[in-house]
Amino acid sequence: MNKYRLDGCEIDSVELKALLVSRGLKVDRKVYQRYGKSARLDVNPVACDCILLSDGTVVQLTDMGFHLKYLSGVLSWSNLKLLRYASQLGTDFSLRVEDSNDAGSRLTLYWREDFLDYVSLPPQTDFYHRKTANGLPFVGNAVLQGLDWVAFQCLWPCEFAASGHKCEYCFSGDVFEEFARKGKLQPAAVEAGDVGEIVASALWLDGCTCVQLTGGSTFDGMKEAFYLNGYLEAIAQAAAAVAGIAPSFPAVPDVPGTQEGAALPERASEKDTPSPIAEAKIAEMLLYITLPKEASLIDGYFARGASRIACSLEVADEQLAKRVTPGKIAFSTRQRHLDVLEYTAQRFGPGTAFSNFIIGLEPFESLRSGASALAERGILPTASVWMPMGRPVLGSMAPPGLDYYRRVKEHFAELYTRYRLEPPVSRGLNVCIERDIWNYAQGR
Ligand code: SF4
Q: How far is the CA of 322 from the centre of ligand 1 (A)?
């Protein structure tokens, strides 16, 4: 793991990642000119760009120059409101092209005028220009993260947000709330066949091995199970085709349980029967779910190939959570989150249930005790760094400082080691730091 000097302080790659994710960078125009066509680098923010530090750490790339220009250039009422916070959004990090006679041009990360690292970008891809056979564009529906993840941001509308209870930090929640306020029909859920096709394409053409499925929160566990079971079945079929187990890619899956209202198909106990997804070598299949009242639905997700399930608390302090994540507290409730997480960890093993925390939204002490309480029960606490540039939370866009991130890193590393909780096996996500903390804990 790399070490860096920043303002007279020695920091490591995990800490640098947290600072870069929370503050963003200014990207020199020459970087786009030099690498825009030869690497994965897009000015469109939904493409979720990242850089790789020289030790391989994956870091979200948010170009603050572009972001601030966008805020001041688009004169909508909501952007004018956000401009109030612009002074909290400064960054001292920049990405530039260094021309060197002997080694060609190099992508260089700076803090103010101090050199930090030579970094790189993932290989070029046409992922964001592809469409499914149904005509659904990949862009806006799925993203590549790091080198091995394909992730779906919001596969179906959030009913909590539509009812006026959106989480303060959530971009997708804004969209659904706005639709409801204007009396518009909510967008339809993405079709199972489209999801299967996008995953197969990412496995086959982009070398992905890990998948994240996320949808909005729902009031009805059966409705969510209908979506998720359909997606899992479709992914299993498409992934098997990629692995050469079945010859039918690309194909829109025709599987039981994908027609709305159809009975959910039963599967044999998973413990004895390898799922089709395991056969097709998807290393991680993460589901972010709302809380079903029927625990048997969780069993069904594992039966269809889920490797881990998240019911995320996001904020440990319950009083703060009432303000930041009002729907999760009012409808799914703290107690039900804990019950479902505990049920999953007990039934499927330590680390199979996890809860995300958004790092930077609450005092370290409440985060520490919340994460500890979960880890003691075999539930993996994961850590996604708050990116304040999107939405103010609790009236602020000011991220915490280095000391906060360092304490989080040390504490989570201790929990992972003491309770043997290994985060998803991958080369890392853009914004989440749990795998990076695990690597730190292993002394790598
Ligand atoms: S419940 Fe989930 S989708 Fe809905 S607003 Fe909160 S974070 Fe966004």
A: 13
